TrEMBL record:
Name used for this protein in its record: Core-2/I-branching beta-1,6-N-acetylglucosaminyltransferase family protein
A GO CC term assigned to this protein in UniProt: membrane
Main location: membrane
Keyword Glycoprotein: yes
Keywords: Glycoprotein, Glycosyltransferase, Membrane, Transferase, Transmembrane, Transmembrane helix
Superkingdom of source: Eukaryota
Topological category with respect to the lipid bilayer: Single-pass type II membrane protein
GO MF terms held by the record: glycosyltransferase activity
Organism: Carya illinoinensis
Database matches in InterPro entries: BC10-like, Glyco_trans_14
Subcellular location: Membrane
Gly residues bias locations: 1-12
Residue numbers spanned by region Disordered: 1-21
């Protein structure tokens, strides 16, 4: 009131702030110090013991709780386990090793197949004239393949049975990587199936893979039953539900990433033990979750989040669309090679469509280099078409 009077009077500076002069000195600063200390102690407590239960929230309304947790800096990350610390140290070091790319760098084409490869003639045409820039590895899980192309003869690696959905699929991928890593010239590693075909000529694919620092590992968050619904809490503490990811298995990866996959035992063993069909009522498919989740945890910025292998799930059936001889047209190839946005759909009721532009070194480019699935009968038509589109 006094201050107000002083203002109204407007007779001079002395009258504007008369209050403090009449109060006992120190009283107000002491109050401020006590108040600030109390608030500080309270905030420190709230920070160290974030109000998670409703009991801890009784001081606030639930909205108050939310406001406090939004306003505070993020809670400190949980303490890493010994194994995690060791694993992170090794992975960090490998990722920091600069790539040793040179004129002699090769792309490793790794084929995962039950037996003979139906498109060897097509691949031969694709590889022809590019000797020294690629290597081929074949993992045949059921029967010994008969090879028709010289590029495939003697390229079979030791193999083992592969059971759909089980860790044996991931084991076969790791076996291929291990063999391909033996050649130090291999700088990029592509996993392909027997039903895959190339969509561009060799140079286009080689440059696309070699002149970027990304690995093309498909990865997205699916809160639905075919995504996070397959997560098991046995994977804790290293793999939290919020980090669980999904993606198609057909990857292509740079050498450092292939090495960290070889080095990983920690995350791998969690998927081996707790991600399999029919475990505790969940149908977890190891090859759809292990690599996406692993890379999301250890190097999220190092993967593109889409696969360079196209597959058409738009019919929403149990199997993707498979192309027969009569489906092979210029228009089909044009359609697939012009897609430059990657699309993922969640498996919950919302069926949320996640779309991202395919960014290659920051520039939007077509996403796909390979496509599946093609019936063997499609080969002759593909060969005809290939004589045209390989020169584009
Ligand atoms: C890839 O990384 C290397 C080393 O970190 C860097 O020199 C190079 O410019 C990067 N290449 C691209 C295409 O980003
Ligand atoms: C891939 O997604 C992760 C988030 O899950 C993001 O951090 C990363 O930047 C994405 N990669 C690229 C190349 O955009
Ligand atoms: C190509 O795409 C167009 C437009 O989406 C579609 O109408 C057409 O049927 C497609 N053609 C082939 C052969 O897939
Ligand atoms: C390939 O190109 C030739 C000449 O440009 C053309 O006559 C032929 O129809 C093309 N073949 C196919 C399958 O498109």
């Amino acid at each position: 009131m006094k201050t107000g009077q002083g203002w109204r009077g407007g007779t001079g500076d002395m009258q504007i702030l008369p209050g403090p002069r009449h109060r006992p000195p120190m009283k107000r600063p002491t109050w401020i110090i006590i108040l600030v200390s109390l608030v500080t102690v309270f905030l420190i407590c709230a920070y160290m013991y974030p109000p998670q239960s409703s009991a801890a929230c009784y001081v606030f309304s639930s909205r108050g709780c939310e406001a406090i947790s939004n306003w505070l800096p993020p809670a400190p990350a949980r303490e890493l386990t010994d194994q995690e610390l060791a694993s992170r140290a090794v992975i960090r070091d490998i990722l920091n090793t600069p790539p040793t790319k040179s004129e002699k760098s090769k792309v490793a084409f790794m084929f995962l197949t039950p037996g003979s490869l139906p498109f060897e003639k097509l691949w031969e045409k694709f590889f022809h004239g590019h000797e020294g820039k690629f290597s081929v590895y074949v993992h045949a899980s059921k029967e010994k393949p008969v090879h028709l192309s010289r590029y495939f003869v003697n390229q079979d690696i030791h193999s083992d049975q592969v059971i759909w959905g089980k860790i044996s699929m991931v084991d076969a991928e790791r076996r291929l990587l291990a063999h391909a890593l033996k050649d130090p010239a291999n700088q990029h590693f592509v996993l392909l199936s027997d039903s895959c075909v190339p969509l561009h000529n060799f140079d286009y694919i080689y440059n696309y893979l070699m002149h970027t620092n990304l690995s093309f590992v498909d990865c997205f968050k699916d809160p639905g039953p075919h995504g996070n619904g397959r997560y098991s809490e046995h994977m804790l503490p290293e793999i939290e539900k919020k980090d669980f990811r999904k993606g198609a298995q057909w990857f292509s990866m740079k050498r450092q990433h292939a090495v960290i996959v070889m080095a990983d035992n920690l995350y791998y063993s969690k998927f081996r033990d707790y991600c399999k069909p029919g475990l505790e009522g969940r149908n977890c498919i190891a090859d759809e979750h292990y690599l996406p989740t692993f890379f999301h945890i250890v190097d999220p910025g190092g993967i593109a989040n889409w696969s360079v292998t196209h597959v058409d799930w738009s019919e929403r059936k149990w199997h993707p669309k498979s192309y027969k001889a009569r489906d092979i047209t210029k228009q089909l190839v044009k359609n697939i090679t012009s897609i430059d946005v990657s699309v993922h759909v969640t498996s919950d009721e919302k069926k949320e469509v996640q779309k991202w532009p395919c960014l290659w070194n920051g520039e939007q480019r077509p996403c796909y280099l390979f496509a599946r699935k093609f019936y063997p009968e499609a080969q002759d038509n593909l060969l005809l078409l290939f004589s045209n589109y390989t020169t584009i």
